Amino acid sequence: MNATSKSARQTASAKRPRDMLARMRKAWGESPFYQAQIKGPAPDRLLYQPVDPYAPDRDIAETLAKGRIALGDEAVDCGDALEKLWDLAEPDGALFAYIQEFSWLRHLSALGEDGKAPARALMAAWLDRYERWSAEAWEPYYVSERLVQLCAHHPLLLAGGDALWRSRVLACMARQTRHLARTTHRAASGFDRLMTALGLGVAGYSLPGCEGPAERGLEMARREMRIQLRPDGGHVSRNPSRQLKLALRLQTLAKAIEARGYPAPGFLRHMVHRASVMAAFFRCGDGGLAVFNGGYEDDAKAIIAVQTGAGPDHAPPDFARHSGYHKLAAARALLIVDTASDAGGAGPYKSAGSIHFSSGRSRIFVNCGNGAHRGGPWRKALEQRSAHSVLSFEEVKGRVTLADIAHRRAEEAAGQLLEFEREIITDRPEKAVFTRRLYLSAGGADLRGEEVLTGLETEELAGAVWRFHLHPGVKASLARDRKSVILLLPNKEGWRFKSNCPEIALERSIYCGAPGAPAASEQIVIHGARFESAEAETGLRMKWALKRLEGV
Prior knowledge:
The protein contains 18 helices and 19 strands. It is of the alpha+beta class. The strands form three sheets. Strands 3, 4, 5, 6, 7, 8, 13, 17 and 18 form a nine-stranded antiparallel beta sheet that branches. It has an eight-stranded antiparallel beta sheet with strand order 9-10-11-12-19-16-15-14, with no helix packed on it. It has a two-stranded antiparallel ribbon with strand order 1-2. The N and C termini lie far apart (68 Å). Mean pLDDT is 90; it is low at 3-15.
């Protein structure tokens, strides 16, 4: 038996129990016994309408009203037959997840009265297909997100509708809420379980007669937060976009409880504050989030909302000790550094030591972002160190492993210094170390770096590559001597990047940190192989500086 056929047989063998379990759940969900368990009084109204903090996109709404929708590599066009949308999206794809979460209601709300017809057509078609139960559409996380959107935008569906239509929609919402109280623990990941529990709480307190499921969701959320939230309020994923979504959902749940006349539990108020402050930590000068660990620039309106919820007297710290981020701010400049380890099972994104740097509303150094909606190859590529503004090793991956991290910072009147030190494991007993020192002047016009590699052999040093990914809005020009790069920002500032490397390269890159399709960008690349071999014998010391040009 060859290795390929053996692997295929092992995969098929592992898949059989999962398929059997799925069939059993499907039979149980469709059975009259389970349907009786989620049956209950049908509400005639909502007692609370959550505020959707994210900004709607009118262009998406107008496109959807014409029967077209696209997400990542997936797109469908059902023309005037909107009801076909549910049949065209592949169940395992990102587009199916998007439409089942009903976040399109947010965008259709931007059309006002014109958004009611397509919203109700899509809702009616969904009810025709999935009203009683569906293994795919009633997956816990989808149900949770769908209920929150339905609660927030229910006037779009119900205002002016007849009693039969209102009863059908509200009864289905109540049945989904009771279903969710029984299935929250089945959510695919820890973050999904936490968000599902919080969504159950929001829906339960919004719908009359669903207070029992709401309390169950609150208790589930409490247990999950004890596991998933760090002492500084950061989520264990260290993803700024997830942090923002979590903080906003916590705020929404607390408001729903208080709107019903109940006091919010003490643990919830505490978590709301800590998570909101941590989400505000990542806000940049342009109003978006710094891009780290699979996050996006995200929604400026939502970021303002989370800051408002945190309160005016609670400014984010400069050092998130437990989440592993440092922030250095000076005048208009902002530097954020990821100083947590990505070794072992810490997470898929190899971002330790990576940086975000911006001046005012213009981003300069960024990380490439998240390719989750673009398919497996994109996702894998954007998880690598080479997709981050940090050191990576090429052609020596089997011999060099980055391990434990230590970091220190110092501040004085002239500026701020951050030192990041990381152990390098090789096949030799001698210790090897990578040290990154970053200095930001008090005026914010001078960012300097010193990158030191010690304990490595010449061949390993030659495989070292430093990358500085540029935001798509930055125009870069490489000098003729290839020792410096001139950067022109959207705010018309000019900056010069220079290094002690004999030859700097300017190469193509990609940016997936903003909504929409990937954007073409550039990256400044410094290869260890470009340094003199005599200099590399005792280690490698690469210095660089980024300075704002006056009068540009």
